[in-house]
Write a structure and sequence with these properties.
Elements: E1 10-11, H1 17-48, H2 53-61, E2 63-64, E3 73-74, H3 75-100, H4 107-131, H5 150-160, H6 166-190, H7 197-215, H8 221-238, H9 243-252, H10 270-294, H11 301-309, H12 312-340, E4 343-344, H13 350-359, H14 365-375, H15 380-420, H16 429-432
Parallel strand pairs: 1-4
Antiparallel strand pairs: 2-3
Helix pairs in contact: 1-5, 1-6, 1-10, 3-6, 3-9, 3-10, 4-6, 4-12, 5-6, 5-15, 7-8, 8-9, 12-13, 12-15, 13-15, 14-15
InterPro entries: Na/H_antiporter_dom_sf (IPR023171), NhaA (IPR004670)
Keywords: Antiport, Cell membrane, Ion transport, Membrane, Sodium, Sodium transport, Transmembrane, Transmembrane helix, Transport
Membrane topology: Multi-pass membrane protein
Length: 436
C-alpha cells in the first residue's frame, strides 16, 4: 500500500540501501572495539585498586621519546596525545564522508543530528556549571560531560538495537561524530593555555603537502605517514592539543565520487579507503590503550567511592551525562520538529529519540581526555572525574538499554517482514520501492 504524500518534512526517514549497509558494517566493527574498550577500562580499574597498583602507576608515568623535540612524555600522555589522534583522524574522515557522499549531504537530514549534538553539548555543560558555579577551579571541568563516546555508544546499540531502523543508527553515529568534533573544538579554544603561533604555522606546511598528495590519490604510506607525523609534531609543539592534527588530516582527505554514477553507489573513495584501513586500528588498538592508561583510578574502598561521587565535580559530570545529554539531545530534536513542523517517519516514536538521547550520555574517551586537561592527570579532582565518568556512562548505558531493548523487539518483527520481501539481488523491496 502506498504512503500518502506528506506536506511536512520528515525526521528519520529511511536511508538508502548503500548507506544502510555501510552503517551496519560500522556497527559490526564498533561492537568489537566497544568490547575491547570496556575490557581495557575494567582492567585499568582493577590494576589501580590491586597490589599491582604501583607497577601500573609506574608504567603510566614512565617517560620515553626524544627530549630534543620536547617529546620525552609519559606513556599515558603518549596514549592521550598520540593514539587518540588516530581516533580523531577516523572521526574526521567519517564526518566528511557523511556530508560529502553520505545521505547527510542533504541539509534537511544533516540539520537534525547537528542540532541534537549542539543541544547535547550545551545542556550538560550548563548543568555542570550550575552545580559547580561556586567551586573555583572545579568550573574548569564544564566540558567533561559534553562528549559522546562513539565506540561505547555504538557497541551498546549494536547489542541491544540490531533491528532499529538504519536512520536511527545513522543519527547516533553522526551525532557522536559531530559531538566529538565539538568537544575537540572546545579543547582547542578553552584548554590551550599557551598558544605558540610559530609552530602552528609550521604545521600548515606538512598539512598542505599531505592535502596536495591525497588530492592526487596518493596512498603511499612512506609519503603520507611522515607528513602526518610532522603535522602532529608541530601542532603538539604549538600548545594546541595534538589530537586536533588528526581532525585536520581527516578533513584533508577527499571523498571521491563518480559524477556519472551520481553518488556513493559508485564505490568507495579515498576517504572511505583510509577509513577501512584506520578504523580497526582506532577501535581495536588506539582507544583501548588510551582507556587502559586513563581509566585506572584508585577508589579507596566504599568510603573513597562515596567521597568521590559526592564531590560536586562528580555530581556535575553524572548529572550532565545522564540528565543533560537526554534533555539536550531529545529536547533539541523536539524543538527542531516544532519549528520546522516536521513529523517523525512512519512507525517511529519519540521514545526512540529518548532512548538514543540517553545512549548519548555514554561519555568516555573524550570525557577522560578533557578531565585530564581540566584538572591535571593524577589530581584529586581528576580522580573524582574519572570515577564519575565511569559511573555516569554505565548508568546512561543501562537506562538506554532498557528503552532500546524494548523498542528493538517491535522493530525485529518489522525487520523480519521486510527481509521476506527480497528479490534475487538481495536488496529488500522496501529500499527499491519508495512507495513502501
Amino acid at each position: 500500500m502506498n504512503r500518502s504524500p506528506r506536506a511536512r518534512p520528515v525526521l528519520f526517514s529511511r536511508r538508502s540501501w548503500p548507506e544502510t549497509r555501510r552503517i551496519a558494517d560500522i556497527l559490526r566493527k564498533e561492537t568489537i572495539g566497544g568490547a575491547l574498550l570496556l575490557a581495557a577500562a575494567v582492567v585499568a580499574v582493577v590494576l589501580a585498586n590491586s597490589p599491582w597498583s604501583e607497577f601500573y602507576e609506574s608504567v603510566r608515568s614512565f617517560q620515553l621519546g626524544p627530549a630534543s623535540l620536547h617529546l620525552d612524555l609519559p606513556v599515558a600522555t603518549w596514549a592521550a596525545d598520540g593514539l587518540l589522534a588516530i581516533f580523531f583522524f577516523v572521526a574526521g574522515l567519517e564526518l566528511k564522508r557523511e556530508f560529502v557522499a553520505g545521505d547527510l549531504r542533504d541539509p534537511r537530514r544533516a540539520v537534525v543530528p547537528i542540532a541534537a549534538a549542539c543541544g547535547g553539548v550545551a545542556v550538560p555543560a550548563l548543568i555542570y556549571f550550575a552545580i559547580n558555579a561556586g567551586g573555583g577551579e572545579a568550573v574548569r571541568g564544564w566540558a567533561i560531560p559534553t562528549a559522546t563516546d562513539i565506540a561505547f555508544a555504538l557497541a551498546v546499540l549494536a547489542v541491544v538495537g540490531r533491528c532499529l531502523p538504519s536512520a536511527l543508527r545513522t543519527f547516533l553515529l553522526t551525532l557522536a561524530v559531530v559531538d566529538d568534533l565539538l568537544a575537540i573544538l572546545i579543547i582547542a579554544l578553552f584548554y590551550t593555555d599557551d598558544l605558540r603561533v610559530g609552530p602552528l604555522l609550521l604545521a600548515l606546511v606538512p598539512l598542505g603537502v599531505f592535502t596536495l598528495l591525497v588530492q592526487y590519490r596518493v596512498r603511499s604510506w612512506w609519503l603520507l605517514l611522515p607528513l602526518a607525523a610532522l603535522t602532529w609534531l608541530w601542532v603538539h609543539e604549538s600548545g594546541v592539543h595534538a589530537t586536533v592534527a588528526g581532525v585536520l588530516l581527516g578533513f584533508a582527505v577527499p571523498v571521491l565520487r563518480s559524477e556519472r554514477a551520481g553518488g556513493p553507489e559508485a564505490g568507495p573513495g579515498l576517504a572511505e579507503h583510509f577509513e577501512h584501513r584506520f578504523r580497526p586500528l582506532s577501535a581495536a588498538v588506539a582507544v583501548p590503550i588510551f582507556a587502559l592508561f586513563a581509566a585506572g583510578v584508585p577508589l579507596g574502598g566504599w568510603d573513597g567511592l562515596r567521597s568521590a561521587l559526592t564531590d560536586p565535580v562528580a555530581l556535575g559530570i553524572v548529572a550532565g551525562l545522564v540528565v543533560g545529554k537526554t534533555v539536550g539531545i531529545s529536547g533539541a530534536t523536539w524543538l527542531l520538529s516544532r519549528f520546522t513542523k516536521a513529523e517523525l517517519d512512519d512507525g517511529l516514536g519519540w521514545v526512540d529519540v529518548l532512548g538514543l538521547a540517553m545512549l548519548g550520555g555514554v561519555g568516555f574517551t573524550v570525557s577522560l581526555l578533557i578531565g585530564e586537561l581540566a584538572f591535571g592527570a593524577g589530581s584529586e579532582p581528576d580522580d573524582h572525574a574519572r570515577v564519575a565518568i565511569l559511573a555516569g556512562s554505565l548508568l546512561a548505558a543501562l537506562l538506554a538499554a532498557i528503552i532500546l531493548r524494548a523498542r528493538n523487539r517491535v522493530y525485529r518483527r518489522i525487520h523480519e517482514m521486510e527481509n521476506l520481501d527480497r528479490d534475487a539481488d538481495g536488496i529488500p523491496d522496501v529500499y527499491e520501492d519508495p512507495g513502501k
